[in-house]
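Lab meeting notes turned into a lecture example. A postdoc, R.K., suggested we walk through two folding results consecutively so the class can see how the record format repeats. The first protein's sequence and structure tokens come next.
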Amino acid sequence: MMDYIWAFLVGGSICLIAQILMDKTNLTPARILVYFVTAGVILGAIGVYEPLVKLGKAGATVPLPGFGYSLAKGAIREVEKYGLIGAFTGGVKATSAGIAAAIFFGYIMALLFNPKTKN
């Protein structure tokens, strides 16, 4: 039960930060997305995000900083294995399943529903 509570608290805190940034600043959601992914990469690379992942599990890995964390972790692992070329391939390997799933399910939803642009 505590895993669920910690996942909720960690994931909810990340979402709360994003909502505060959207409400209190002039940052667009796209910029916040980029900042969160970049923060995940930086915090993952220096080892700060790992304890948060161990504590919050899916609450830390599912939001956008978790994607950045996965990129950094994959790149670091591949650099240790293959050298400099791993910096380019590691992030792609580590996140390819998530990216493929997002594209696949996005396509399926576009077929099932009638997507419209915002006015």
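The second example is placed directly after the first for contrast:
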Amino acid sequence: MTSDVSDRKNTLRTRLRAARRRGVVPSMAAEVLTAVDAFAVSPGQTVCAYVASAYEPGSLEMVEALRSHGLRVLLPVVVESSLDWALHTGELRPGAYGLREPVGPLLGAAAVGSAALVLVPALAVDHSGVRLGKGGGYYDRALTLSTGPLVALVRDEEFVPSLPAEPHDVRMDAVLTPGSGLVRLPL
């Protein structure tokens, strides 16, 4: 990672986290079902999602909306420096970094490849599909194994014209915001 790009990303992360603490946290329960319909994901198919942390778009209500829609929902589990996945059956436990994780057996990192849709947390997304994450690289490493559409969830003001990018950054196929709904990328 070049120092200039790294510095720009870190500055953006600091600014975006501060703005999130002042804003309303969108549940995204209805919005994710719009994405499910737009990508023709049928009951019984797998969706990778996440349980939102403080100030992050999304909610447990969002995850339950997916399950209520008849979808098989996989949630991430942090294992050392990578993401593994487990089926969400309704029970969560405390995990790494203060995250909540499913209690079921781990399915392996490659389980993300079985998903018909992958919902991805982000601090920001740009019009070309560049996603700014929290900086650990967990999702960038995991998403290289995905074959389904990648949809980042952000607030409306976090969908921006451009972001600094590096070769390892995995591009999103769409962004989902409370105000604009689903926007396919790149624009």
